[in-house]
UniProtKB/TrEMBL annotation:
This is Transporter YybO. It comes from Dictyobacter formicarum. Pfam families: MFS_1. It comes from the Bacteria. The chain crosses the membrane at residues 7-25, 48-70, 77-109, 166-186, 232-253, 273-295, 307-325, 331-356, 368-388, 394-416. Its main location: membrane.
Length: 445
């Protein structure tokens, strides 16, 4: 069946996945170079925490508008523009001369990369039937982990041989090449000249999201409607708990290995590879292949996804084990278990917006989810920096991450509920208008 209908959609998934790899190279480069930056500019641990999270400030602030823009203008143009901005931001980082300029460059990077994840989620909804959504989502979500597998040692090598500025020149060049490739290759299914009629029918009949369906009320009326949905809050809060731990590892893991376990930059780069490689494998084969296979065999969609997310986040609690050792191998084992579990929970979470969102609002649901997730991501490096400064140890950071994961598990279990499409609001425009008039009359009285 796969061979007969064609595989254009899987080439699209690969293109999106490469984009996320490049996205995260631009995040990993700073993680690997933190010690070098700290020495050159005499930065404190809290200042490093602010630098590590500054990218996420602009990234998170833009998630709601980006979600609405994706629903209105589509994936193609927003990611095209984003690649230009993030390439410029990465190049400029190599030229900075102090704390303030680094912050500005990272804020610009957040603006450029804001459409990447919700855009990939929306594109996956366009291009894939529901039964393939797990593996398709893991194609771009696993890329976020795989980026550290190749990025950490690559950037560590560049830094150790050529200095930290060279790392940003290299990643800027890679971003430029990807931007050109995406501009030339990505099209929505209705615009694709490569998509056969058979594959288009297979995608549509399998429950793919309709293209270019904009909610009747548009804009903020739709956002307010979605924010009133318990399912959306369950998804967003659960994802925020995951993202706190994810960004703690992404931003501080190389620094933790260098500062606490006294590794060199190059050695820390290789140790960083191990947990991220395991995370890449579990993301694809458990969060993607296994989830799709179980659903294809007739198992309940909600039960499968909820069970996988819960088990993954429970395994994430293994991060607590790293709080009680200073042995590099033991710490790496605990961190690998935690990241491996979190990794296969993540693509399940990212597949949910396209499954629960009313027509034309996948971008908005993904934006809300990513907003809360990245607010947690903003907090993680800053909190870690202060904890490290006052305790001189990473132990408390791992304990805090474990407590937050428990709250996330409860959100997925008790707020999200069944994973099914939220009913479309009837006559949202008229309802909003009536409510507005009623409010005005009430104020007059």
């Amino acid at each position: 069946m796969q061979k007969r209908v064609g595989n254009v959609r899987w080439w699209v998934a690969i293109l999106l996945g490469i984009g996320i790899v490049v996205n995260y190279l631009d995040r990993v480069n700073l993680s690997v170079t933190t010690v070098s930056l700290q020495k050159e500019f005499r930065l404190t641990d809290p200042q490093i925490g602010y630098i590590l999270s500054s990218f996420l400030i602009s990234y998170a602030v833009l998630q709601l508008p980006v979600g609405a823009w994706l629903d209105r203008f589509g994936v193609k143009w927003l990611i095209r523009i984003g690649t230009i901005i993030w390439t410029i931001a990465t190049f400029l980082t190599a030229l900075v001369s102090g704390f303030g300029l680094i912050l500005l460059c990272r804020l610009l990077l957040g603006i450029g990369e804001a459409p990447a994840f919700p855009g990939s989620s929306k594109a996956t909804g366009y291009w894939f039937p529901v039964k393939e959504r797990g593996l398709a989502t893991s194609a771009f979500d696993a890329a976020a982990k795989f980026s550290s597998v190749i990025g950490a040692p690559l950037i560590a090598f560049v830094v150790s041989v050529y200095g930290w500025r060279a790392a940003f020149y290299v990643t800027a060049l890679i971003s430029l090449v990807y931007g050109i490739a995406f501009w030339l290759l990505y099209r929505d299914p209705s615009e694709s000249g490569q998509l056969s009629a058979e594959e288009a029918s297979y995608i549509k009949e399998g429950g793919a999201q309709e293209e270019k369906v904009v909610p009747a009320a548009g804009g903020w009326a739709t956002v307010w409607f979605l924010l009133a949905q318990k399912k959306v809050w369950g998804l967003a809060l659960g994802f925020a708990a995951y993202n706190y731990s994810f960004y703690l590892f992404l931003t501080w893991l190389p620094g933790y290995l260098q500062k606490t376990l006294h590794m060199s930059v190059l050695t820390s780069g290789w140790y960083t590879v191990i947990p991220w490689f395991i995370a890449t494998l579990t993301d694809i084969f458990i969060g993607g292949v296994l989830v799709d296979r179980l659903i294809a065999q007739g198992h309940d969609n909600t039960r499968v996804r909820r069970t996988v997310v819960t088990i993954g986040m429970l395994l994430g609690l293994a991060v607590i084990g790293a709080a009680f050792t200073t042995n590099a191998i033991v710490a790496t084992i605990w961190i690998s278990i935690a990241l491996g579990g979190l990794a296969f929970a993540a693509p399940v979470a990212w597949s949910i917006p396209s499954l629960i969102a009313p027509k034309g609002t996948v971008g908005s649901v993904g934006g809300i989810m990513n907003l809360l997730g990245n607010l947690a991501g903003i907090a993680a490096p800053i909190v870690a920096g202060y904890i490290l400064q006052y305790t001189k140890s990473f132990a408390a950071n791992f304990l805090v991450a474990g407590a937050i994961l428990i709250l996330g598990i409860l959100s997925f279990l008790f707020l999200l509920g069944r994973i099914e499409q939220i009913p479309e609001p009837e006559n949202l425009v008229e309802r909003v208008g009536v409510e507005t008039r009623a409010d005005n009359e009430s104020r007059v009285r």
